[in-house]
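User: I'm putting together notes for a lab meeting next week and I want to include a structural view of one of the chains we've been expressing. I don't have a solved structure, so I'd like a prediction I can at least talk through. The sequence is below, exactly as it appears in our construct file.
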Amino acid sequence: MVERRLEVLPDADAVARRGATMVLEAAAATATGFALAVSGGRTPVRMFERLGGLDWERTAIWQVDERVAPEGHRDRNLTGLLAALPTEAHDRVRPMPVTEPDLEAAAERYAAGLPPAFDLIHLGLGDDGHTASLVPRDPVLGVHERDVAVTGDYRGRRRMTLTYRALERASLVLWLVTGADKAEMVQRLLSGDRSIPAGRVQAPTQLVVVDEAAAAR
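Assistant: Thanks for the context. Below is the predicted structure for the 217-residue chain, given as structure tokens.
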């Protein structure tokens, strides 16, 4: 059974603060290491900037997805992530190997290094209902035997992404969504609409944190 709980906050900054609080609480609740997977976007960058209290020595950060682009490119989620995190956290990040020539083999190696389950996975929500790089009409939506897969071209880039199988093993999925352009998709996510990729995420415990614009009906 999937539980999707909704929290509506005033603005994007409040959403980012709440996200940081949830990450810190999840980390404090783990007895050993803290396994975190993060997506890209503006709101999560604000969240990363507020994680100064995290014990980096016992934290490992994986990427939920990444665009196939050169190292340091502005299209890379990793670029924004590293800019937002303190320097001491950089060696705790496990980047997706999207610059390797054989992307399928690289995805397989990345999958082999994932934890058995994530303590928290942060997800965003696209205006077309995609999450991670699980994008509409791409064959990646049907990949159920692997934890990491590579998409076709989507908005100008191929991407590497965690699959539904990996997402569903999370102790908590934390959605951070802002902006009026996401309002329709938020409602469809909350209703479990499987016609959008986000609606197919079946992790048992999900918290959907949105700003007032994204919550408008």
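A couple of points you could mention at the meeting. The mean pLDDT is 96. The CA atoms of residues 97 and 109 lie 9 Å apart.

User: Perfect, that's what I needed.
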